[in-house]
Each structure stands twice: as structure tokens, then as C-alpha cells.
Automatic annotation (TrEMBL):
Keywords: Membrane, Signal, Transmembrane, Transmembrane helix
Signal peptide positions on this chain: 1-28
The protein, known as: LPXTG-motif cell wall anchor domain protein
Record field: transmembrane: 377-397
Source organism of this protein record: Marvinbryantia formatexigens DSM 14469
């Protein structure tokens, strides 16, 4: 019997294989980065007494003398202030040094204190009732004048009278507890600014990169004018306005600090690696918790953390909470620490030449991703499938031939 030709079967299988191969498109992976320097700044905490007073040559009983006492906040953070008044009567010695006369009653110097904006704490201090904001002066003075009592006898004649004004201040945010007056209701509560307006990071596309909206300075808009023991919260919106789905990641990088002395640099290192702690959450999930520098043991921000897959038009919110240790002292005032954050968008498209150059001096660039080509994986799978089809068809033809033979 004449054998049947197998050529048509082989041609059919080859056609199927060609169709499978033609339907395969190789995809190239890419990544685009965008970075920003964020700053945390310590407050300048300063207050000073301001007086309007001209010392008269002499003061007679019942004579009123103008002496106006205010306090001005010359720092950049709100504060609570209290003032202590000490009255003394005495003489000048041969060297012009004042010597207090213990036999004379300093209460003969009469002062009417303001009780509208100031409260007598009955502990030797007068407390300004409101938080004194940066740059402000007390709305009303503690005192405006004094009078020598009408019953001051000849023993007071020719004597020197001194009114000594001492001022103490603490940061308004959480500082009043130092004075242990939280339950005396003599000063108003102060909430401060714990949450600021959200900043944002937007991925525009592979060619345009990231748009990082910085509120005045950087993403950490609310992490300025910090004081020991305070806390701040910053919301950062992550958006994808490109026309494709991407994965976005975040990591921190080492960065040179601003120019400063070696002593200041050592303090900044303590600030960002020890005293300033952040907690980053996304939908309640903790992405990172540790020093603001990102160098926590275990969950280290130097390794990229995925913020998820973002479809075109999608957005997510990061909540960054910063807490500052109350153990810090005044040597940390006015310090500025820098932290660099890097956002990366990863995607893939049809194979095209991928640039390995990053823009000169820029903060956004395309990076080729060294991973297996998913298109090749599909190709090999199709090849195996076609081979299996060919072998199965050949085996079936062989069995049929044997039966017919």
C-alpha cells in the first residue's frame, strides 16, 4: 500500500507555530526616578522684656512714676511667659553698688498689676494668659506705673528704690507642663499646628517624570520650627496622571548637609538619627518607623518600599508623623537637617531603545531595569506548546498509519 504523505500535517503545524510566534510582543521594563530634599528645622526660642522707664532723680510719697513692662517674642515659635517682680529699697555704697536695706519695707512701693491679660499664680509669678506668638508683644503690659506709699516716713527719704523684673518662658506646645499649671486655668490651652496642608508627588509619564509639589520649601511643610517634645503630621498625596499603570516605590538616600561647623554637623546627625522619629503609613499599613534619616534597623528606608500599583488617574495618601524627643536642649535651636527621598515609577512597554542617560543636573531620569524579558518567556512557552502539538500530531499519524497498515 502506498504511504500517505505527511507534508500537509507538518505544514499545518508550522503555520500554527508561526501564528503563535507572530502574536508575541517583547516588552522592555523601565524605571523613572524623582528625588527631593526635605528639611526638618528646629525653632529659635527667644523672648525679651521691653520696658518704657526713665528713672527720676527722686520720688516723693504718693508720686506716680511711669514704668511700662511688656514681653516680646523675638523667636520663631509660640511661647508661654511668666514674670516675677521683686521690689527693693536701699542705698548705694562707696563704689556705686546698690545695697538692700533690710529694715525698710519694699511693699511701700505700690504697683497695680494688670489682671485682664495677666494672672497672679500666687507662686511669685504673673502669667500671661495667652500663648505669645512669634514676633508678637504682649497685648497689655503687666504694669504701667508705681507709686511710693503716702505713709512712707522720713526713713525712706533719699533712699534708692529698685523694681527688678525677671521673665521666664517655655514653648507653647506642651511646655506649660514644666510649670505644673495645667489645672490652674490661668493660661489658655495651646494646640499648635499639628497637621499642615498636604503636599503631593505626581507621576506624569515616562518622558516627563515626576512633579513634586513643594509647599514653600519641600514635602515636609509642617516639619519646621520644631521644639523638643512636639509632634507634627504631614500628608503627602501620591498620584499617577500618566496614561499607563505603574508601580511606585519610595526610599531614602544619604545626602550632604548644609554648610555648618563641625559641632553643628554633629548635632544635626544626632537630630536626624536619634531624636527625630517618623512613622509613615498608607491606608493604616506601616511602611516605615524609625529615625527620620531612614536608618532604622530591620525596616530600613534605604531599601525601596513599594507604595503599590497605580492605574492611570489613581492616587494614594501617605501620612508621615514626626515626633521629637523632649530630651533635647537649647543647643539644638535653629538647626536644619536635610533628608533626601527618592520616588521611582516602574513600568514596561513594547521593546524600544531605552536611554541610559539621565538629564544633566536633573532629579528625574530613566533607568533600564535588569530583569528577565517577559516577552522571551512567552516566546519559549509558545515554542514548547507548538512542539508538543507537533509531537502529538506526529504520534497520532503514526498510530493511524499502523492501523491502516
Amino acid at each position: 500500500m502506498k504511504k500517505k504523505k505527511k507534508l500537509p500535517v507538518i505544514l499545518v503545524l508550522l503555520s500554527v507555530f508561526c501564528l503563535l510566534a507572530a502574536s508575541i510582543t517583547a516588552y522592555a521594563s523601565w524605571a523613572v526616578t524623582g528625588s527631593t530634599n526635605n528639611f526638618i528645622g528646629m525653632a529659635s526660642f527667644k523672648n525679651e522684656i521691653t520696658e518704657q522707664y526713665s528713672q527720676p532723680g527722686s520720688v516723693d510719697p504718693s508720686q506716680e512714676v511711669t514704668k511700662i513692662v511688656n514681653v516680646k517674642n523675638t523667636g520663631n515659635v509660640a511661647s508661654f511667659v511668666r514674670v516675677q517682680i521683686e521690689k527693693q529699697i536701699g542705698d548705694l555704697d562707696g563704689n556705686g553698688v546698690f545695697v538692700k536695706d533690710e529694715s525698710l519695707d519694699p511693699e511701700k512701693i505700690l504697683i497695680t498689676f494688670n489682671n485682664t491679660m495677666w494672672a497672679d499664680g500666687h507662686d511669685g509669678y504673673f502669667y500671661y494668659r495667652e500663648a505669645l506668638e512669634a514676633g508678637e508683644t504682649t497685648k497689655e503690659p503687666l504694669m504701667e506705673s508705681f507709686v511710693l506709699s503716702a505713709d512712707a516716713g522720713n526713713a525712706y527719704k533719699g533712699k534708692q528704690g529698685h523694681i527688678i523684673v525677671r521673665m521666664e518662658s517655655v514653648q507653647a506646645e506642651g511646655g506649660a507642663d514644666i510649670w505644673n499649671i495645667s489645672d490652674r486655668k490661668i493660661i489658655s490651652s495651646y494646640k499648635g499646628t499639628s497637621v499642615s496642608e498636604a503636599t503631593s508627588v505626581t507621576f506624569l509619564g515616562k518622558d516627563k517624570g515626576f512633579d513634586i509639589e513643594k509647599s514653600q520649601t519641600d514635602l515636609f511643610a509642617s516639619f519646621k520650627n520644631l521644639t523638643p517634645g512636639c509632634s507634627r503630621t504631614q500628608e503627602i498625596i501620591i498620584r499617577n496622571t500618566s496614561g499607563e499603570e505603574v508601580e511606585i516605590t519610595l526610599h531614602a538616600e544619604p545626602v550632604d548637609q548644609e554648610k555648618m561647623s563641625a559641632e553643628q554637623l554633629a548635632l544635626v546627625e544626632q537630630l536626624i538619627n536619634k531624636y527625630a522619629v517618623i512613622r509613615i503609613t498608607q491606608d493604616g499599613k506601616v511602611l516605615y518607623e524609625g529615625p527620620v534619616s531612614g536608618t532604622a534597623e530591620g525596616n530600613n528606608m534605604r531599601r525601596a518600599a513599594s507604595l503599590g500599583s497605580f492605574r492611570s488617574g489613581a492616587s494614594e495618601k501617605l501620612v508621615v508623623k514626626l515626633e521629637l524627643s523632649p530630651e533635647m536642649d537649647n543647643q539644638y535651636m535653629d538647626l536644619l537637617g536635610k533628608i533626601r527621598w527618592v520616588f521611582t515609577a516602574k513600568g514596561e512597554d513594547a521593546a524600544t531603545p531605552v536611554s541610559t542617560d539621565t538629564p544633566s543636573g536633573g532629579t528625574t531620569g530613566i533607568i533600564p531595569v535588569k530583569t528577565g524579558d517577559p516577552g522571551m518567556a512567552v516566546f519559549y512557552a509558545a515554542l514548547l506548546s507548538a512542539s508538543a502539538l507537533f509531537l502529538a500530531a506526529a504520534a497520532a499519524a503514526k498510530m493511524k498509519e499502523r492501523k491502516n497498515g
